[in-house]
Amino acid sequence: MRIPLSWLREYAPVPADATAEDVMATLVKVGLEEEDVHRPTDELSGPIVVGQVLTREEETHSNGKTVNWCSVRVVPEGQKQTLTGKGIEEDGVQGIICGAHNFEVGDKVVVTLPGAVLPGNFQISARKTYGHKSAGMLASAKELGLGDDHNGIIVLSDLGLDPEIGTDALEVLGLYDEAAEVNVTPDRGYAFSLRGIAREYCHATGTDFDDFVLKLAERTPAANNSGLSVELTDDAPIHGKPGATRFVVRSVSGVNSAAPTPVWMASRLRLAGLRSISLPVDISNYVMLETGQPLHFYDADKLDGGLTVRRAQAGEKLTTLDEKERSLHVEDLLICDNSGPIGLAGVMGGASTECSTETSRVMIEAARFDEVSVARTSRRHKLSSDASKRFERGVDPQLQAAAAQRAVDLLVELGGGSADEGVTDVNNTVAAEPIELPAGYTAGRIGVDYSEEQIVSLLEAIGATVETGSEGFTVTAPSWRTDLANKEDLTEEVARLDGYDKIPSTLPVAPPGRGYTAEQVARRAALNALAAAGMTEVFAYPFVSEEDNNLWAAATEGEKLASVKLTNPISEAEGWLRRSLLPGLVGVLKRNLSRGFKNLAIYEQGHVFIPGKQLGSKEIPGLGVRPSDEVLADLNAGIPDQPRLIAGLFAGKEHEDMPGATARAYDWRDALDASRLVADSTGIDLGVAQGQHQAFHPGRTAALLASDGTVIGYAGELHPKLLKSLDLPERTCAFELNFTALLEDASGPVGAYGIYGYPATNQDVALIVDAAVPASEIADALAEGAGELLEDIRVFDDYRGTGIEEGKKSVAFALRFRANDRTLTAEEASESREAAVALAAERFGAVMRG
């Protein structure tokens, strides 16, 4: 909301020397947020004055352009020239070339003289052009930054002005005013007006607010039978509330719609962020900004009969003021006459009844429409207007008659019209329900010991009616505060008006036994470990294609997985929620590769979405009422399972080449190590076995196993054909691990290894087995057979070649034995090793290699 200071001073005691920054600092005290400052003169400087055209000679030049060679007086005749600027004549008569043709000799215009600077740092100087020395420029509205009108220069008489020659044109046009811009939150619609801002300024400064709307209401005529007939109907109210509760109609005849908008009004509208269009439109906008009540003006002679407010019928269409034909929805609330729809209620009027410069009889509509209905219509048609923004936030239901009266007054004063006798006021407004505010509630919530007198005075200051009882207060909110609905709202108002700075800042003491959950601790440990290992965390969009879900989340080629389809996807090509993190990581990898980053190790953690038997619910419950347990159960049953996964990609080399250190290319071992690092950081043993996955290399893929043997992820090199199709580097590796399933494998707190004072004994064993037997299974058998004396086992060699039968392999293991109560003998270690070999021979036919 932009607030021109000259306008605000009419309704609030703003000091004459106060700046926009001062006003914003004051409004911040009552909870409004400062946004910006708008000063037209920030981009205008130097001599910009009122001039009078003395002569005008049309000249057509060789380029085919016709220009005017003019002499323009910029200093009153007989007065001394005091303007400064190189190129300003002593007699105050300037020679100026002008390409516009919308002026005549004798017209008073805006002249930018040499030395002036216009928006965009456009500097005016005397220069030779079209065979003449042109010392200045006759300015248009666009050149002064006042709007988009560049069809001609500003002719002051067209604006109803006749200032003295040489007068400061910026002052004549009201450009020395400034505006403070504040952010109005959705719950404070009353502040979307000068009336609301002035009230808040008075609250902040502790002064009384004299509500001009109440004075307007005092002289508003009562409804009579001479007014236009209006019928409010609503066969399909949204969330149980009718679309319109009040509708006021007034009319003014004999209006000169072609009359110029006064400069003071146009300049205020411009500072408030609206351009001047025509007198009727400008008056409508002016009253809206001033009071907060959106109005709509009809050309009364274009109306066919009375008005009806109703919901749209299937197949109806309406051409709105922006000249777009809109197909209407059955929830759209319409203003109709006998010809059909003539406006989208609360959003935008129709083109068929628009006011023009020929309009002489203006029909004024001031209505109160439902917030939800207007908001849905606005979003449905992607049509946001200044009116809809106010209706969406709630408009004072007692404001309509007063706002219509203000519009009538301005049309009579500025347009030369006369108010018609007829007044229509269909009022179905429901009185506000009283709110009970228990004694002590406010102090208990805010932590400030407010007295009874303070609470009463502060609530009465916002316009509420307060009755004091033995158990507290009964408060009736003012009509303009539609946001006040309960005791919490009233408590917030007391705290806001008394001053947030008076609320003590006391940090609560955290209760014992709280902190991160076990899952949060484990997740942070895993992510920190990956980052410490040199990987970079990234975040990708959770939206993928159905093909990507089937490729990355299904291990078997051709398998079709159920996925969650979005109703309104950003992209139809990626209209499903992910079942794997790898499609997003591939996109991040490709984007970085395209920008010259060749060596990458990235990872992501996040949820995936796996639909169950039921997806969604049969119906969405209505608003305002708590759903039943059955409905809630149905809603919960329709939510897809959302396990948390951790995944990573490796491409290129682990570091750049450098002297003394040849860079190693990433391979499948990096992906497997990253998976183990995630498990080790959380204190969980991760099983590894030979795996198969359609997106991974057939011989370089590890299946990651939980303790029960369930596959909870994969790690390895991606399939060469897939890498080629995705245009990714060769040997790109990846891992993906179901972190939720991994944590379910945790048995409890992680214990530290014991420190033993007795020496270890190391022995090696090499076993010949079938090539298809995984080394991890052999290691498990050796560990089981060796018993409790075995402290550690690891593979250090896998040989296949000369001396080994085809189809076989030799796998060598290093075994470390230790006892915690004595020094082991060589015989004890050997017995343990022989028991280990025996079990491996029994299970896999393993033979010791000679």
TrEMBL record:
Domain FDX-ACB: 756-849
UniProt catalytic activity: tRNA(Phe) + L-phenylalanine + ATP = L-phenylalanyl-tRNA(Phe) + AMP + diphosphate + H(+)
Cofactor binding note of this UniProt entry: Binds 2 magnesium ions per tetramer.
Superkingdom in the source lineage: Bacteria
GO biological process annotation, one example: phenylalanyl-tRNA aminoacylation
Gene Ontology MF annotations: ATP binding; magnesium ion binding; phenylalanine-tRNA ligase activity; tRNA binding
Protein residues bound to Mg(2+): D483, D489, E492, E493
Gene3D superfamilies linked to this entry: 3.30.56.10, Bira Bifunctional Protein, Domain 2, Ferrodoxin-fold anticodon-binding domain, Nucleic acid-binding proteins, Phenylalanyl-trna Synthetase, Chain B, domain 3
Residue ranges of every copy of the TRNA-binding domain listed in the record: 42-170
PROSITE patterns assigned: B5, FDX_ACB, TRBD
EC number assigned by the record: 6.1.1.20
Pfam families listed in its UniProt record: B3_4, B5, FDX-ACB, tRNA_synthFbeta
A GO CC term attached to the entry: phenylalanine-tRNA ligase complex
Cofactor(s) required for function per UniProt: Mg(2+)
Keywords for this protein: Aminoacyl-tRNA synthetase, ATP-binding, Cytoplasm, Ligase, Magnesium, Metal-binding, Nucleotide-binding, Protein biosynthesis, RNA-binding, tRNA-binding
Stretches assigned to the B5 domain: 430-505
Subcellular location: Cytoplasm
HAMAP family xrefs: Phe_tRNA_synth_beta1
Similarity comment: Belongs to the phenylalanyl-tRNA synthetase beta subunit family. Type 1 subfamily.
PANTHER family: PHENYLALANINE--TRNA LIGASE BETA SUBUNIT, PHENYLALANYL-TRNA SYNTHETASE BETA CHAIN AND LEUCINE-RICH REPEAT-CONTAINING PROTEIN 47
Subunit structure: Tetramer of two alpha and two beta subunits.
Protein name: Phenylalanine--tRNA ligase beta subunit
Organism of derivation: Rothia aerolata
